[in-house]
């Protein structure tokens, strides 16, 4: 990671974020073509596992089978502050 000051190393904090986040984004690539999708998810803290709704076949599965390196992010939504919207 380039910005070490931004890296979250605490597994406790990472799990807290995954529990609170409403959506996650996953990014995949196949044959030099990126595919990015945001979706809701379920998080099982006991198994430390994230679940997504997905059909048994389709674009996400095709990309995951072609390249098992997948990037993801979970964002906490704190709304917006209207003072920045002038």
Give the topology.
Layout: H1 11-20, E1 23-30, E2 33-40, E3 42-44, E4 49-51, H2 59-66, E5 71-74
Antiparallel strand pairs: 1-2, 1-5, 3-4
Describe the 3D structure.
- The protein is α+β, with helices and mostly antiparallel strands.
- The protein has one domain: Pnp Oxidase, Chain A, CATH 2.30.110.
- The chain is built from two helices and five strands; from the N terminus they run H-E-E-E-E-H-E.
- It has helices at residues 11-20, 59-66, and strands spanning 23-30, 33-40, 42-44, 49-51, 71-74.
- The strands form two sheets. It has a three-stranded antiparallel beta sheet, with helices on one face.
- The longest helix is centred in the N-terminal third of the chain and has 10 residues, at 11-20.
- The mean pLDDT is 89.
Q: Could you spell the SSE succession in H and E letters?
A: HEEEEHE
Structural category: alpha+beta
Q: Count the helices. How many?
A: 2
Note the overall shape: globular
Compose a concise summary of this entry.
The protein is α+β, with helices and mostly antiparallel strands and 86 residues long. It has helices at residues 11-20, 59-66; strands at 23-30, 33-40, 42-44, 49-51, 71-74. Strands 2-1-5 form a 3-stranded antiparallel beta sheet, covered by helices on one side. It has a two-stranded antiparallel ribbon with strand order 3-4.
């Amino acid at each position: 990671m380039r910005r070490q000051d931004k890296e979250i190393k605490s597994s406790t904090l990472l799990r807290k974020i995954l529990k609170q986040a409403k959506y996650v984004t996953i990014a995949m690539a196949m044959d030099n073509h990126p595919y990015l999708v945001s979706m809701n998810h379920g998080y099982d803290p006991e198994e430390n596992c994230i679940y997504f709704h997905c059909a048994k076949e389709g674009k996400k599965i095709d990309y995951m089978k072609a390249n098992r390196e997948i990037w993801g992010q979970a964002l906490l939504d704190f709304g917006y502050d209207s003072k920045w919207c002038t």
